[in-house]
Specification:
By secondary structure, this protein is an alpha+beta fold. It folds into 2 domains: about 40-130 and about 285-315, Immunoglobulin-like (Sandwich), CATH 2.60.40.2250; about 135-270, C8orf32 fold (Roll), CATH 3.10.620. The chain is about 25% helix and about 40% strand. It is globular, with a radius of gyration of 24 Å. InterPro entries: Papain-like_cys_pep_sf (IPR038765), Transglutaminase-like (IPR002931). It holds the Pfam family Transglut_core.
């Protein structure tokens, strides 16, 4: 009996040691992955495809605009190309032009007409170099040219009494804009994260629920900042290693400075972040403009079709 108890004890110890070893291996593997995702810079090849479906035969004078943010201190974009296919055939628009919109490179295709049930494939390819970016705040010039980012816009309800009251309460006692930014960032970063599948992001939606996804949290922070007369705008992009869309915030403190209340980065942007566009509230990287006499709600449908990232080298 004693012998069996002893053998059972030895077996228990072996199981315990083995479990501890497996746990330590799991922790080491997790740490290795985290370290791997925090390299100081990346060289990436990116390919993004959008599918645009035309569901209305009455669409007139359609045009497509596709935007990609230009290079800055955090990233440098090279070899930028758009390809356009319609119904699986190469297609030349009646007019192609490029211009800048919200500091983004914008390609525009104008068409005389599009057939009903046209399927348009917009294929974006580019190479990009990114690096860890630490930013210093500068005195905020109240005479800056960014009044656009001080007023309410789609999803950023900075003029709502609840937003104004909350912003005032959070920043009470703080004098400098930097301290106000830190206080508002802290408040939003502590809000619970939940996936939101009900339409676009909204500051009020996030405030009412007391939780939100990256869109909602970014929009709420923008609204609270604008209520303090501090320019702020949402940023749309992705995080390398996660390969999903992500939204964060740029606040103007003498220069556009990055803040991510979801992943808790203040005045810092990891190299894994790639900015595709910034805007003023609701914003689409691909937009279709057209004229129609119809009231159909599903005249144009835009879907993210493919998202591919290849890492060339990094340090």
């Amino acid at each position: 009996m004693k012998k069996s108890k002893f053998l059972f004890f030895i077996l228990f110890l072996l199981v315990l040691v083995f479990s501890s070893f497996c746990l330590s291996m799991s922790i080491d593997e997790t740490n290795r992955t985290i370290v791997d995702k925090n390299k100081s810079n990346y060289h990436l090849q990116v390919r993004i495809q959008y599918e645009i479906n035309v569901n209305n035969e009455d669409i007139l004078e359609p045009s497509i605009e596709a935007r990609l943010f230009d290079s800055n201190e955090h990233q440098k974009i090279n070899n930028y190309t758009w390809n356009l296919l319609i119904n699986e055939n190469n297609y030349s628009s009646s007019k192609y032009s490029t211009f800048y919109f919200y500091e983004s490179k914008t390609g525009k295709w104008d068409f005389e007409n599009l057939n009903r049930k046209s399927s348009i494939l917009l294929d974006l390819k580019f190479e990009i170099d990114t690096n860890n970016t630490y930013q210093n705040t500068l005195p905020l010039d109240k005479n800056n040219k960014y009044e656009l980012y001080l007023v309410p816009s789609g999803g950023i309800e900075s003029n709502d009494p609840k937003i104004i009251e909350l912003s005032k309460k959070i920043t009470e006692g703080y004098v400098t804009d930097v301290d106000k930014v830190k206080a508002l960032y802290k408040y939003v970063s502590e809000i619970d994260y939940i996936e939101d599948i009900e339409g676009r992001g909204s500051a009020l939606k996030c405030l009412q629920r007391g939780a939100g996804d990256c869109d909602n949290k970014a929009f709420l922070l923008c609204a609270l900042l604008r209520a303090q007369d501090i320019p702020a705008r949402p940023v749309f992009g992705f995080i390398h290693g996660e390969e999903i869309a992500h939204t964060w915030v740029e606040v103007y403190l003498g220069q556009w400075t990055n803040i991510d209340p979801t992943n808790k980065h203040l005045f810092y942007l990891p190299a894994r972040y790639v900015k595709l566009a910034s805007g003023n509230g609701y914003y689409d990287i691909v937009t279709v403009y057209y004229k129609t006499d119809s009231n159909d709600e599903d005249e144009i449908e835009i879907k993210d079709l493919k998202f591919e990232i290849i890492e060339i080298n990094s340090n």
